Structures
1.
Amino acid sequence: MKCQKAIFSLPPEVSYLNCAYQSPLLRSVTSIGRAMVDQKATPFRIVKDDFFAPTEKLRSLFAQLIHAPDPKRVAIIPSASYGLATVARNIRLQKGQNIVMVEEQFPSNVYTWKRLAQEQTVQLKIVNAPQEDDQRGAMWNKRILEAIDEQTGLVTIGQVHWADGTLFDLEAIRRRTGEVGASLIIDGTQSIGAYPFDVRLLQPDAVICAGYKWLMGPYSIGLAWYGPRFDNGTPLEENWISRLNSEDFGGLVNYEDRYQPGALRYDVGENSNFILVPMLSTALEQILAWQVTEIQAYCRELVRGPIEDLRALDFKIEDEASRCAHLFGIRLPAHINMDRLKHRLQEEQIYVSYRGDAIRVSPHLYNEPHDLDRLVACFQEST
Ligand SMILES: Cc1ncc(COP(=O)(O)O)c(C=O)c1O
């Protein structure tokens, strides 16, 4: 795979290594977005089919990406927190049960469960990362499995840690949750689109994914997949389009108690968003054409040498076996001045994220070795 920077609009002098914050838009995605804004200026061009066909296509593209056989299990959501709130609304735990998650999860995937824990009198079990550098990822995974017990009602976790890219062994976690009868909820926001994910293999209960990072879509649209455990549940809101026969515009006031099939009942209101839906679909088409395995392989090749160089300078980075390649955290030794390093990176227009004493680097196909060389040079200067 060749570097794909030419089909984005990133300025040549910028090294954008921050897809985990926001992806840039593909030129093709910007164009369709502009065309759809223009369409709204002439609303007589928006026809009934525009409410249904584009969302059907979007569901089907996401289903392909996660290898889900039935696109009707995919719901259109405005944010990860919305998709998680739907899960929380439909989970009934018993007093004394627990919810397992890891340390420093993204807040949308913590506050939801804090509320549920209060309302249903259950315990939150937070599994801390080991302090040791050696075998950190493997030990963390072991601790997660040990934390899941007969009282566990739900495990909610990312495929990778959003701050440092530690990979969680979802297959082992699924086996363990299966043994104790707990639900498994995956936040795929920092991995799906850049790291392989297979619903058939994993059989999770729900997968939630914001769309503006590795799905390369615009802000305020994401996708969620809900498994059979959520069939016949209660949505967060009651919108007209989620009801059966909503395609019959003339009959909308023949109020209908039944919902559309699958997970369509969990769609956000105005799910047909005529601007955001085609933008996200265009991005997913490109990701599927590239292939997720190729994206991951490209990033792995891109970061391998620079990571070795950074390790040689005494910066700490998770082992390759326990870490994805599209997102990694660099922890600084105590003597390095973070502010100075940050300033240098800004001067060089190298964009990364800062998380406590760590720096998060998240490349994609628009990056080339030159971007990583410039990054390593700034780290080298700081030592
Ligand atoms: C792991 C993870 N989940 C979810 C989100 C976004 O959550 P929301 O869509 O609720 O704003 C982020 C954003 O950084 C994230 O890193």
Note: The chain has two domains: 5-17+291-382, 40-289.
2.
Amino acid sequence: MSQGLRRTKTPRQEGEIGQPMGMLRLLTLSLLPCLLVAHGAEPASSQNDAAWLRSKGRQLFADSFEREESGNGLKGIGNGWESATADRVPQLKQADLDGGILKVNSASKEAGHAAHIHHDAGFRDGGAILKFRFPGLHRDESLQLGFVDRATPGIHAGHLCYARLEARNLHLMDWKTGVMNLDIRKRRQPYLDQRKPLPTDLEALLKTKQLSQPWKADQQWHELVLVCKADEMRLSLDGKLIASHRSEGYAHPNKRWFSFLIPSTVWIDEVSLWQVP
Ligand SMILES: [Ca+2]
């Protein structure tokens, strides 16, 4: 360390610098609550959504999978879960309860669809807390989870909104007013079928319905929290807000099902669903 740097640490000089800095810090701290109140709520960036669900919400459902499955069928997982794609391939085990963990191994090719496992939810504002792990058994492991309402017309298969975690990216997607809106889907499909670029207005609209950002998957267990609050959907991992996106579809009044769409392998544990009144 140079003589000059060491000299800046003498008490006299710290006192000289410290006093105005201390006043500034005091001023900032005293103003902070006013600034937060002025914005009307906790800022999303510092909000812990698991704490929000647990303190303000009502638990609708919880499962820690400490049992054996009763078979490969629609209701084989038990506790109210349904595997929508199970009966397409009854000879294949796509959901295995093993050591208190739900181990999903989708027969996507044989069933012609990613494993779709869902449970009743039913809220406007609220969300899910769960643990997940990519076990590293397949190269293309990804996890899509979100909300479905098949009772509202105009939405293909009732797909409302999802988060999707892939190897290098994650996405928050409003499908209700995006790609699964029947009018949009009808207009978009011919371009997809012919592998042609979308009209610029449609492409611009769909861009507003999805948030995508880099994220790197690993093979550790993680706590995941997915919430919808008014027209915002937020994803947190291990207590940190990772992504948030606003779009009108997230405000759908009834998220009837909580759903997993799993194309290959994912392990799941300690799922809870919460409604915030
Ligand atoms: Ca468990």
Note: The two ends are 59 Å apart (CA to CA).
